[in-house]
Amino acid sequence: MSVVVTAPDGRAIWDDLTGQSxxxxxxxxxxxxxxTARDAAGTALAHSWLITGPPGSGRSNLAYAFATxxxxxxxxxxxxxxxxxxxxxxHPDLGVLATERVIIAIDEVRALVTSSQYSPSVGRxxxxxxxxxxxxTERTSNLLLKALEEPPExxxxxxxxxxxxxxxxxxxxxxRSVRLRIPSVEDVAALIQRRDGVDRATATRAAxxxxxxxxMAHRLATDAEARERRSRTLELALGIRTVGxxxxxxxxxxxxxxxxxKAFTVQRDADERERALRSLGVQxxxxxxxxxxxxxxxxxxxQKRRATRSxxxxxxxxxxxxxxxxxxxxxxxxxxxLPAVNEAIAPRIAEAAAAGSAAASxxxxxxxxxxxxxxxGNVSPALALxxxxxxxxxxxxxxxx
Length: 401
Prior knowledge:
- The chain has 401 residues and is of the alpha/beta class.
- It has three domains: 21-179, P-loop containing nucleotide triphosphate hydrolases (Rossmann fold); 185-222; 243-400, no CATH class.
- The protein is 61% helix and 6% strand.
- The chain has a five-stranded parallel sheet with strand order 2-3-4-1-5, sandwiched between helices.
- Helix 3 (59-71) packs across helix 4 (76-87), helix 13 packs across helix 14 (346-355) and helix 15 runs antiparallel to helix 16.
- This is DNA polymerase III subunit delta.
């Protein structure tokens, strides 16, 4: 039987991992003291784990729940204290690499690998978590591979990525994989209702429009501005008729993505700068001594990189919303008996379906997918978005002719 580990608010640490019962059961069993005893003989607890799943499925949440269970001493008091430390990323035996950059820097991985060689100071293990392991270059991945090949006896690595294919084959061969699935709309709605205190209808709509992405469902359920930005995205897409419309819509959508990114980063950047200055002994509004300016410049560079990633993520969310819109249009055209993502604008979807063809809708979905791949390949988001929307107008014109 696994240890029941409690989160800082008293809940079991696995409670928020909705729809992932098989993965939870596996990791809860692997982290129990009894499993640990067996693994001294070399059976169940692997030294390296890879948690994969689509965005919003709870990869990092599961990784930190697993880390909490591994670091816990098994008593209720110890479990709660450990959970608080892991939540704050301050546990002495926890190493974390969570980047806001587009690419994980090799120096960050090198520092984590060095830290992984230390013996645990208070827990049963030393646990190293790498979020977004798919953001490593091949050179950086090979550096991590050396640590995975010969880990210290009491070090556990937990990597997170969208899929196994996102990592180099030699790393895949060194890890035990745990695959997460997309949770159901009902499961996500129940979680949002319980955790965020919203009514069932609001939670269900948010879960459906977020397509079961837990983090996005939370935002849509609790942030009126996020809901407004999404509605504006769909309105802009439905209003495109000409190339001029497409160009104007591309600019407006980029502005929406920027607003979305800004909502994430502005206050966080200001708080981060204030903490950094305070830790360096600089008073608010005071001048920064020359010998400390390099550290502040490094922070500002990190924040710029984070802003770039946040903007790209915002654009990708817009493209996902556009795919959901045209998927609904296609289902209507085909007469498919499947639930729509955007039920709230069903009449507009019916109008769009009547104005085009299924072949045109398929072509639009392909164009959106191409835009996502281009942006992921470092094509300018503005160019990729504008090209996609212009091709959309041509596709619609061809579909009507």
